[in-house]
């Protein structure tokens, strides 16, 4: 049994250590929790009413992981190899994303009414170019949005936000690290976060729709993770404090999932609850030792779910949107919802193992930034051409 568990954990540890410098099963568990509540919210929106906060959990995790990697590189070499950083992101994120977009285009031809092809074509293009959040923002500003008209790739808005963050954040960190004082660096990152949070609170009060998708007012969520990364080993908490922090953190995330709904003024100040909760869990896990949740969060099923969380996020939403086109009356029955869960898990596992891992570790791509970026451009062009076929049909 021990050998079997070690064999299962090995690829998870290798993939995770490449980003953080050390395996963090608690972060894998946070990923599992985040994607789980998002999927449940999309399938049972009247029951898991606040499950959308899972995206905010992902933003904090991304801020921590990416900033940890960049800070180590700056500390070790005094610079960031920007092209290599972007190439790693491309190999990690784009293959599965392009695969799902291609599948959506094919499914659109087969299942979606012709009247909706134009919307699908535009959103697939925006998804391939990581501009989906701005397309949705423009639609919100121009006219009231009918939520029932979201396409099978609307969920790419959050991927677009993350990619835009990845595009700018290394350059900003390099600028801040020119300050020799660690306190000045923390102050600079904090200032960026506070400005973003203030904008988020204001825009949410003015127009909640665009506030949900605009990148600048989401940056503060990534900043929470970045501040923890800047703290590093200095954030090792006493055992009792760490236990309490992680308990409060998980309670904040789960509480948001239950207490929030579609009418909540979100993101705004309300988003502080799940994001600070995520920060508490991450900070509590800095340093050695088991936590009260370790038996559950380090279990094989939770770790596996965390490992496939990205692919699961990609696959589940297209199924949620497209399967009703095959159902009488367009209504998802309970068996259909359960079937979507099972199908999403299977597709996520297969694409993680056969696509994500294979491309990410392919020696020719790993050894060539140029080839990686050429493949990225080719993939974007191919998906956009397929989407253009929808527009011209």
Describe the biggest sheet? none
> Beta fraction of the residues?
under 5%
Mean pLDDT: 91
Q: Which value, in Å, is the CA radius of gyration?
A: 21 Å
Number of helices: 18
Helix content estimate: over 70%
Tertiary shape: globular
SSE succession: HHHHHHHHHHHHHHHHHH
Tally of discrete structural domains = 1
Question: Regions with pLDDT < 50 over 5+ consecutive residues?
Answer: 1-21
* N-to-C span: 55 Å
- Alpha-beta classification: mainly alpha
How many beta strands in the DSSP annotation? Answer: 0
Throw out a few tags for this protein:
globular, 75% helix, 18 helices, mainly alpha, 393 residues
Describe this structure in words.
- With 393 residues, this protein is mainly alpha-helical.
- It has one domain.
- It contains 18 helices and no strands.
- It has helices spanning 2-20, 25-43, 54-77, 82-111, 117-128, 132-142, 156-176, 182-206, 208-213, 219-231, 239-259, 272-284, 294-297, 300-307, 309-322, 334-360, 363-366, 369-392.
- Helix 6 crosses helix 7 and helix 10 packs parallel to helix 12.
- The longest helix is centred in the first third of the chain and has 30 residues, at 82-111.
- The radius of gyration is 21 Å and the shape is globular.
């Amino acid at each position: 049994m021990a050998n079997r568990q070690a064999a299962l954990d090995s690829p998870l540890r290798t993939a995770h250590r490449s980003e953080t410098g050390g395996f963090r099963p608690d972060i894998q568990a946070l990923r599992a929790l985040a994607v789980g509540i998002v999927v449940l919210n999309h399938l049972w929106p009247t029951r898991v009413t606040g499950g959308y906060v899972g995206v905010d959990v992902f933003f904090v995790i991304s801020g921590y992981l990416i900033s940890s990697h960049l800070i180590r590189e700056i500390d070790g070499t005094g610079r960031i190899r920007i092209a290599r950083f972007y190439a790693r992101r491309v190999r990690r994120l784009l293959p599965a994303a392009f695969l799902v977009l291609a599948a959506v285009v094919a499914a659109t031809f087969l299942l979606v009414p012709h009247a909706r092809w134009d919307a699908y074509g535009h959103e697939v293009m925006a998804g391939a170019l990581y501009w989906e959040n701005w397309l949705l923002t423009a639609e919100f500003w121009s006219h009231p949005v009918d939520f029932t008209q979201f396409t099978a790739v609307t969920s790419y808005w959050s991927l677009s936000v993350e990619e835009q963050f990845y595009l700018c954040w290394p350059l900003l960190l390099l600028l801040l690290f020119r300050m020799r004082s660690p306190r000045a660096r923390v102050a600079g990152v904090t200032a960026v976060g506070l400005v973003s949070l203030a904008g988020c609170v204001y825009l949410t009060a003015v127009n909640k729709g665009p506030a949900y998708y605009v990148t600048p007012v989401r940056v503060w969520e990534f900043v929470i993770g970045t501040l923890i990364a800047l703290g590093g080993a200095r954030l090792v908490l006493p055992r009792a404090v760490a236990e309490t922090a992680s308990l409060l953190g998980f309670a904040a995330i789960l509480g948001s999932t239950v207490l929030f709904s579609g009418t909540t003024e979100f993101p705004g100040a309300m988003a502080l609850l799940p994001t600070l909760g995520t920060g508490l869990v991450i900070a509590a896990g800095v340093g050695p030792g088991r936590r009260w949740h370790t038996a559950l969060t380090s279990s094989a099923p939770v770790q596996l779910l965390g490992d496939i969380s990205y692919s699961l996020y990609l696959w589940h939403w297209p199924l949620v949107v497209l399967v009703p086109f095959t159902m009488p009356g367009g209504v998802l029955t309970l068996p259909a919802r359960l079937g979507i869960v099972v199908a999403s898990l299977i597709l996520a596992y297969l694409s993680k193992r056969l696509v994500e891992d294979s491309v990410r570790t392919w020696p020719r791509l790993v050894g060539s930034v140029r080839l990686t970026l050429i493949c990225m451009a080719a993939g974007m062009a191919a998906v956009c051409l397929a989407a253009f076929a929808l527009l011209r049909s």
